[in-house]
Predict the 3D structure of the following.
Amino acid sequence: MHTKKLMTAFIFLLAFVMIMTACGGNTNNNAGNEPTPAAGQGNEGGTNAGAAGDTALAKAMNGEYKGKKVTMFGPFTDADEVKFNESIKAFEETTGIDISYEGSKEFEATISVRVGGGNAPDIADFPQPGLLKGFVKDGKVIDVKTFMTDEYLQKQYNKSWLDMGTMAGPGGDVMAGVWARSSVKSLVWYNKKAFADAGYAVPATWTELMDLTEQIAKDGDPAWSIGIESGTATGWPATDWMEDIMLRTTSPENYDKWVSGELPFTDPIVKNAAQKMSDIWFNEDYVYGGRKSIATTSFGDAVKPLFDNPPKAWLHRQAGFITTFFPEGLTADDYDWFPLPPIDEQYGQPALISGDIYAMFNDRPEVRAVMEFFTTGESLKSWIQSGGVTAPMNDADPSWYPNDQERRMAEFVQSADTIRFDGSDLMPGAVGAGSFWKGMTDYISGTVDLDAALKEIQSGWK
Amino acid sequence: MGRKKGIRRSKWLVNTVLAVICLIWTIPTLGLLVSSFRPAADILATGWWNILPHRDWQTAEQLQLPKETDLRAPIGIDGATYTDDQLRAGVIVGGERLIWENRRARVLNVQEKEWTVISRFTTQNYETVLGGKTYSITMPDGSTKTEKGSGMSRSFWNTVAVTIPATVIPIFIASFAAYAFAWLRFPGRKTLFVLVIALLVVPIQVALIPILRDYTALGLNGTYFGIWLAHTAFGLPLITYFMYTSISQLPKDLFESAFMDGATNFTIFSRLILPLSVPALASISIFQFLWVWNDYLVALIFLGSQPEVQVLSMNIANLVGSRGNDWHLLTAAAFVSMLMPLAVFFALQKYFVRGLLGGSVKG
């Protein structure tokens, strides 16, 4: 008797769930099922449809692709996802194309499985171009030049962006995708009001910066607040510092060699950069909480002591996105930034940047239209207006930026003597997202000395 | 008499040791529970145990040093001199502690130990987790628009929709299979059984890409049916083995007499085997239920994180935000996601204890 009841209960439960999912399932059934060209053939499929004449975007704007769906996969979740959806809303309404965005924290790990399993999204967003390189090499990615002309791309982007987007495919170089949003990294943030009250001046050279650091220390505060803790990605802010200092102590060519693995980490040039960094980081008077707290402070919390009253620290080097980590209630009058000053005058004022490149895996007219849309500043307009992102496109209007600080970031990139992409994002994952992070963390927490740390990082290349 | 006392004493000893072990094992969970009710800034500043009464340094008075005090030279206070390092860490002088309040302003705290407790609690973490985060976005015209992100309820039901069939289907199939392996004689039985056991050691990761390819061809990606199938396949070897050990222990005479009475295999299975293996069924249900409920990898690959199908574990992983800034929400989210497994566990608990022996005593 007892079992019968149990069985009936089970059957009811099962039936209930099946009915529930049958109702809910319909909406998403066609999400993954759209006929997609086999990933391997994508490239050839793209080349024969080379008619670049009247653009897909123009057709889309006329409503030709109404009701079509384009799937996108990327790492934004949360607030970024909301901002992204907000920025494509107008496009979706005009064209009737539904851009279905899926964000996952595990993007880096999942995208390889999906592409390998033939379930690639139409468009994927890569914050680390190093990862995209592998897919381009295997011919999985569609060359955007098959439907966008060189002239058009050169009009939309600076040459350095286009150079960074060009990657080696199986049959020669391809334009692997379009740059959709960027972030400027070489920024030193400070508390504007407290800075003025204390009578400090913005340093223009490295010597002035070190003098200011010493001055603040004499006055009784540590100048810098530094934190590199970031869960499994602990160490990445340290790699940004290294890259910034590399750009300021050696030639851009050496930087490129370093990023591509030709210049080993054990080279004196790299060691010199690490020592420059240690001059600040390991001086107990210069860092809030001292060396021991760097590795245990979350990068997002590290900026907070600047805005304590009175400030507990005065300077913080971090990319433009850090404004989202500022304590609530701060306005643009409370904070400001200056570029990390040049160290060796002959290399001028470099700017370290990072960005997201959107790559296309399936070639359909509506996907082309969406890709073309992403090359326009318009696609980023509402995101720029809500703050936290810099546009890589030329046609983004400076008046869109919500405040002067963000506008100056865009100008800073335009006027910098050298622009280089975040090196750790370009290096292969085993180094850029592996031994580089870990080696820096070990060095900073004091478990190994500099030579051992650099050797450890270099071993990631093998 | 003496022997009895000895047994009682050893029982006491065992119970005490067990109680201590239980306590140690529960402490992290307890800490998580306490943290889930604390504001994020507090979690950062102090450990959860500070909610218990404890003695801590409290500032009694402040000492203003001359503004021109050189911090790098020994600092004289009340006739004694201290180094800056000492004052940073705090020096204890006659029960009082000297420590910097504001080095820049040259203000020192003189502190005494006092009993305190921290009693700032909030339900904000739970509200955000259940109700969804709010995002304020600056609109083109300068106004701010607040948008509410999706809460957990949608993904909670999604998880239920994934978990229940993914628990029932494999157990249903595996029980039939286990009966066949245990009591039916057919050619290749041993070989097949060894094959099933061998599948136990195949890690599921190696199957992800091949299965994903097939799913893409069949259009099963991102559907509930696809993930039920995946969980069924991944769960079957263990469940079959587990059910086999339980069913094969039943006395042989039972089946023989039933067979003599003219019962078919199906009658034997449904009237005899199933009622007799309820404990085993219940305990393997708990195992499979927990496994599917907590699963992240299979859902990530075959279901994806579209809001219509997103399961709890993925929703929770995404809660921390693109840059991990909302880590404090994980405490509350962990407890919310724990509720359902706890309910299932307590409902089936009495079988669970019996079932733990399943497979352990084999004749």
Observations:
- Residues 174 and 240 of chain B are 5 Å apart (CA to CA).
- The mean pLDDT of chain B is 86.
- The first helix of chain B runs from residue 2 to 36.
- Residues 2-44 of chain B form one domain.
